[in-house]
Amino acid sequence: MAENSSQSKGNIGKIKGFIDEQKESPLMDSLKRRWYRFSKNPLSKLGLAIALISIFLAIFGEYVVPHPAHAGAYRDYPNRFIEPFQSWTYPLGTDSYGRCVLTRTILGFRYSIRMAVVVLSLVVPTGVVVGLVAGYHKDTWIDTLLMRTSDIFIAVPPLVLALSITAMLEPDPMYAMLAVSLMWWPWFARITYNNVSSLVNEEFVKSAEIMGDSKTHIMFFELLPNCTGPILTKLTLDVGWVIIIGASLSFVGLGAQPPTPDLGTMVAEGSRLLPTWWWISIFPAVAISFIILGFNLLGDGIQDAFEEVGAGS
Amino acid sequence: MLEKRYIAILILGTLLISTVAFSGCVDPDDDEERPTLLRMGFAWPTDIDPAIGTDKSSAVAFTNFYDPLVFPTQEGVEPWIAEDWDVSEDAMTWTFHLRDDVTFHSGNEMTAEDVMFSMERLVTIGEGFAHMFEPYIDIDESEVVDDYTVRFKLTEPRGVFLPSLVRLYIVDKEEVLDNAVEDADFVYEPWGNDLGRGYLIENSAGTGPYNVYEAVIEDHFYGERFEDYWGPMAENAPDEFRMLALGEAGTERTMFGAEELEITSEWLEHHTVVDIAETFDGKLGAYPEGGALYGMMHTQKEPLDCIYVRKAISYAFDYESQIDDIFPESELMEGILPILLGGAVEQDMPTTDHEKAMEYLEQSQYYPDIVENPEDYEIEASWTGAVPATEHVALMITSDLEDIGLEARSRRYEWGALIDAMYEKETSPHICIVWVSADYPEAGSLLNARYHSRNARSWQQNEWLEDDDIDELIDDALREPDMDERFALYEEVQNELFEMYPSLFGHDQYSKHAYQPYVTWPEAEDPLEYSIPSNGYSVNVRNIEVLPHGER
Q1: For chain B, what are the domain ranges?
Q2: Pick the CATH number of B289-509 from 1.10.1040.10, 3.10.105.10, 3.40.605.10, 3.30.70.20
Q3: Which class in CATH covers the domain with range A44-312?
Q4: Hey, which residues 54-73 in chain A have their CB within 8 Å of chain B?
Q5: B409, A96: Cβ pair inside 8 Å?
Q6: Do A73 and B410 touch (CB under 8 A)?
Q7: In the prediction, which pLDDT does B143 show?
């Protein structure tokens, strides 16, 4: 009996310990469960791998490319138009200047990823704050002012707005990024607004208000954490879209300027040489698709992870 | 009800069978009847009004839709609408005797009234080639002597007046005034109307071998052969001359392959033109037009305001590679002007020598700061997006300057934006890479356009020399009636300019094209014999032959 009693005490202790452990790291638990949901789909893992490779190449590209000097105003006319898969020196061939297409394609990741990083780091905070404030003040003049302003920006076709802005200023990657940012924030404002306005009458918000928490606290510490899933999903999916818009601006000469290795510019330059010298545009185009595919798959995975967890909790 | 269905099926079946049966049938005789076309690509804008346009495509339009008073040749000019002329001793009175067998596309006879009106219209509108006449033509004292004689009075002697007349295109006074509009954006006094400016945007009113019958701005001009043309025409000159707004390599390649384009446009890169010709068994042709590629250096902008920096750049540039690798159809410049122009002289041109470039750089007022902090002296080499080959030159300049320790970047401009930038001294780039061709086949044409202060605010100049001595020398030369004397003065100007190192002197330009095997184009096939060193005159459709369809 005493043995049984001590055994049961031991089991209870284990259970208590387990519960305590659970209480100590709810974040870890949440992350583990999300990772489990995420990793169930092999395509999500593929997307993550592609995204990590893209980021790695964007940061360390110059250390892995075979011909770093080919990033600049390098020319080697005797070696131009070398076909791909003919030599180890130029595995993906050379362009009309004699520059290594593999080198320039890899270095092109930097501009594309930088474009996405800069644009999203500008638009996500802006859009999220606007959406939070408007959503929390739903049906007030603040809501009307902020959301109608964002509607005006949404009404203009994104590429047209970006083209107009960069055409007015001089062709420069920084202006291109600013132009894309200007048209992109309303989408994050909209998605945050939709989520916040559906949560604003929930009990946990009312409780916080009764407890006397400040509006800032309620918006950023009660509401925002509940919108993380959709925002993260959109952010990941938008990486691809921002890269496409950036490449489009470069394609028409309003983004990165030669000789900067930029995938959109390389596609534009190579398109003049199709179909005879197809590799000059095809490989950069494949690289753009590679990045976009990766981030889209990653976005889908993140969406799965947050949806499942959200439903469970 | 059933009968109706049968009838419907019967009709549909008949239509289907007819369509299939006759779609592949072409009467062999039709080949003989089909008009021969010469379709050529051009960079827009094309102004077909001879009082407005000046660029290459406009000049080609004038050559084929109009006739000038005199026609340019390799040696100078030859009689054309004017059969003969007299000049007074002071070179201020020029009398022209006109042909009496010339008719306009409208059917009107061409007379001295039309010639006088053409000059008056040109200088009144004051655009296009007006700058070649407006400062010194005395319209009030000029007169129509009789139906076939016209006399122009000048306010000062002008030796280049005669060669300048290759840009006086004769318009049909009656047709133009019949279509002039009084309530227009541009109204000219004392005429009180637009002098046909609106009408001539889409119509030709000339005597040339082709008459515009369809115009869609920014897309095409179609001209049909003028059956009553007075002048020489090749036996198989095409029935139609079509100017198409093109320039995109892929489009031209596809059209050329489908025989929807006879001659590719001028600004395609050399390897693209060669590829098109080789892929589709076409011909390759190139001809000089009295033009050259210049890297125009802004002589009033830091650090190019120092002659030693300009000299350093001149010796840093890779001239040989420019020819061998980018423009193999062209030739290195032998002087500061295209050598084919009358009065152009050979000079001791700079060659690539980086040691010498460094020596000059060390003599610069900006040395050593310019190499220690090159980012403070960044030099912008601008190029035109519509002409991809200029990007190669810009990058070549960039890397050559980096080799001598300077910092440079290439910048792409759209053509319109570049023209706007070059209009103001403050906005003009450091270096502009632009081809400029002579308007008449003499050195004076380019000296005036390229280096005289009066033309500083134009796309033909980025140097901003604004040098009174140079202006005076050019004016003296242009005034000189005696050709030998004039050429001697041209030489003096060229030597003075050479010492100032105002430009990178790239190459004597050869316009290159791929064209169909059923086209014979003397100017492109034998340029030394036939080409004319004057912008637009080597695309002279009078001389081009297109084999009839049945003989290809």
Answers
A1: 34-65+208-282+516-552, 67-175, 289-509
A2: 3.10.105.10
A3: mainly alpha
A4: 72-73
A5: no
A6: yes
A7: 97
**CA B434 from centroid of its chain's CA atoms:** 12
- On chain B, the residues whose CB falls within 8 A of the CB of A272 are 248-250, 269, 272, 388
ipTM of the shown complex: 0.79
B414 CA to chain A: closest CA distance, Å? 9
Q: Which residues of B touch A259 (CB under 8 A)?
A: 395, 398, 410
Q: How far is the C-alpha of B394 from the C-alpha of B431, rounded, in Å?
A: 9
pLDDT along chain B (552 residues), means of 10: 59 58 49 87 90 93 98 94 94 96 98 98 94 91 97 94 97 98 92 96 97 95 97 96 93 95 94 95 94 97 97 96 93 96 96 97 96 96 90 94 94 87 94 95 95 92 96 95 94 97 96 97 94 93 94 82
**Whether A190 contacts A150, CB under 8 Å:** yes
CB-CB contact of A135 with A223 (8 Å): yes
pLDDT tens track for A260-294: 899 999 998 899 899 999 999 999 999 999 999 99
Partners of residue A166 in chain B, C-beta under 8 Å: none
Residue B279 and residue A259: Cβ atoms within 8 Å?
Answer: no
pLDDT digits (tens, 9 = 90+) for A199-213: 988 889 899 989 888
Pairing of strands B220-225, B240-245: antiparallel
Domain B34-65+208-282+516-552: which topology?
A: D-Maltodextrin-Binding Protein; domain 2 (3.40.190)
Pairwise CB contact (< 8 Å): B395 & A257:
no
Question: What residues contact residue A270 under an 8 Å CB cut-off, 6+ apart?
Answer: A95, A277, A278, A279, A280, A281, A282, A284
pLDDT category at A169 given cuts 50, 70, 90 is: confident
A172 touches chain B (CB under 8 A): no
Q: Which amino acid is at A187?
A: W
Single pTM value for the model: 0.83
Hey, is the C-beta of A84 within 8 angstroms of any chain B C-beta?
no
DSSP secondary-structure letter at A100?
Answer: B
Catalogue the E-assigned strands of B165-247.
Answer: 210-216, 220-225, 240-245
Verify whether the Cβ–Cβ distance B249 to A276 is below 8 Å.
Answer: no
Q: Judge whether A276 is closer than 8 Å to chain B, CB to CB.
A: yes
Query: Shortest Cα distance from A119 to chain B (angstroms)?
Result: 24
| Class level of CATH domain B67-175 | alpha beta
Position A166 confidence tier, pLDDT thresholds 50, 70, 90: confident
- Distance from the A79 Cα atom to the nearest Cα atom in chain B, whole angstroms: 11
- What residues in B contact A257, CB-CB < 8 Å? 409-412
Distances (CA, A) of A184 to A177, A254, A264: 10, 18, 19
CA distance B449 to B283: 34
Cβ contacts of A169 on chain B, cutoff 8 Å: none
In Å, how far is A188's CA from the nearest CA of chain B? 34
